Amino acid sequence: MAKDRFIKDMTKGTPYKLLLKFAVPLFIGNVFQQLYNLVDSIVVGNYVSSHALGAIGTTNSLVFFFFSLMGGLSVGIGIIISQHFGAGNKDKVKETIGTGISVIFVASLVVFSLGFFLARPVLTLMQTDPKILDDAVLYLRMISLGALGMGFYNGTSSVLRALGDSKSPLIFLIISCIMNVVLDLLFVLVIPMGVFGVALGTVISHYISAVLCIVYARKTNSYFKLSKNHLKPNGTTVRKTLRLGVPVALQNSMIAFSLIVLQGIVNSYGAVFTTAFTIVGRIESLVQQPFISLGAAMASYTGQNIGAGRYDRVQRGFKSANIMNFIFAAIIIFVFWVFTEPIVSMFGKDAQTLKYAVDGLRITSAFYFFLGMIYPTRNVMNGAGDAAFSVYTGIVECIGRILFTYPLTLIPFIGMYGCFYATGITWLLNGTFSVIRYKMGKWKTIKIINKKGEDQYENHRTTSTNR
Residue 47: which H helix or E strand, with range? Predict the structure, then answer.
């Protein structure tokens, strides 16, 4: 059908070609999003103040923490959908989409409440510098108002990706990012609203991208043509979504908690070092996009192929993704060691801030090979429904950041740079643990689709084999 032209069956074809074709639109979209964040930081750092940039940066870990619930549930919904799609069960796909709408709505309300009402006490507990505290509270509360928009955009995008469509969400993400940049310039340069204006532009963009993505999906994708029965929450699907999504949300929450602890230690060194840490984080958010994009491709690829019983294809795809990540990591390490100073100088003119950022970026970039190992492995586990792995990897993240950061800062010749070393060590631990978990093969034994789906899965597998 023409209206389903972007849907892709990933149970057939060469793995690395499928992964690249799927990942490229994701990468473009993620780069646009991160470029917005870079532009956001450049505008705030140069035209508001370096303290305002630090205020926004100090909320990053909290935003991640509060929004991790919606992200985890979206992953859970996507896993179920991809496996039902791989098994050829269209009605179950629609049922899961309908139930997912209710799940995301409730989760968005919870996230809004957490972010809005806990902003000041949590930021105070994190030892946020008084110079930037009020701006940080304002920014976090404003971003929380966009929870519903972000939730429905991410939820719809997760469904489309589970169906092999990474192109449709790209269109609206690009529109959202362009609008975000325009609104930033409007609310900072034309109408000087400072941090409030930056947050307002982000919230408006979230809602616009959500509405556009949902309307487009309804018009162009037959799986979004839902009946009243599909929209009625299904208890079994809700439980399954929670069983898969909550561990991922817990993983993200533990990662976010470890980042909050790390941010608290960073904040204790003052606003200048906090701003430098923010600059490194903004740059690395962009660098991680190829890893993240290939990881997202692996999740959909894994789910569909497990639904079709093609475990051999999952293994081939995993190998292809890791080779591509290794090549990219080698290239970016070279770039960051040679061109570090001009890269960080885009974010302001304060000499001490830039010195900290240059040193920090060189430290963390040395660990990019391990960072690249994390995403394909994590998403094979997610696509297979290995909920226990999500919890384990969250624990590893906590161990890396919480147990190593403060002791490293006590070493005289390391000092505050221990915050950067702890980040790299965390990637090393998590990458190594993830590969060990994959090699153990637990993911091959997990079944998440229901009995009806299993019956169709057997038929689908037989048909695929005969073909």
Answer: helix 15-47
What pLDDT score was predicted for residue 37? 67
Burial of 236 (0-12, 13-18, 19+ CB in 10 A): exposed
Lowest mean pLDDT among 4-8, 268-272, 293-297, 353-357: 4-8
Q: What is the pTM of this model?
A: 0.69
What pLDDT, in 10s, does the model give residues 282-294?
788 778 888 888 8
pLDDT in tens, 58-100: 787 788 777 777 777 887 888 888 888 877 788 888 888 888 8
CA dihedral 441, 431, 21, 209 (to 10 degrees): 110
Task: Find out whether 373 and 435 touch, Cβ atoms under 8 Å.
Answer: yes
Provide the pLDDT for residue 36.
67
pLDDT at 454: 45
Count the Cβ atoms, other than its own, within 10 Å of residue 386. 24
Phi and psi based region of residue 12 (left: phi greater than 0; alpha: psi -120 to 50; beta: remaining): beta
- What letter represents residue 230's amino acid? H
Look at residue 203 and tell me whether its pLDDT is greater than 70.
yes
CB distance 332 to 365 below 8 Å: yes
Residue 185's CB is within 10 A of a number of other CB atoms, namely 16
Cα separations (Å) of 111 from 144, 431, 438? Answer: 7, 29, 32
- CA-CA distances (angstroms) from residue 233 to 15, 93, 96, 229, 344? 35, 13, 9, 9, 49
Distant-in-sequence, close-in-space partners of 432: CB < 8 Å, separation ≥ 6: 370, 373
CA distance 182 to 187: 9
HSE value, Cβ hemisphere, 13 Å, CA-based, for 31: 9
In 3D, which of 10, 103, 78, 92 has the Cα closest to residue 450? 92
Which residue from 244, 310, 291, 449 is spatially nearest to 9, judged by alpha carbons? 310
Phi and psi at residue 367, in whole multiples of 5°? -105, 15
Distance CA(200)–CA(222), nearest Å, equals 34
Local structure of 171: helix, strand or coil: helix
pLDDT given for residue 427 in this prediction:
92
Alpha helix stretches (DSSP H) within 385-467: 387-409, 418-440, 451-466
Tokens 């957490």 map to which residue?
114
463 pLDDT above the threshold of 70: no
Amino acid at 124: T
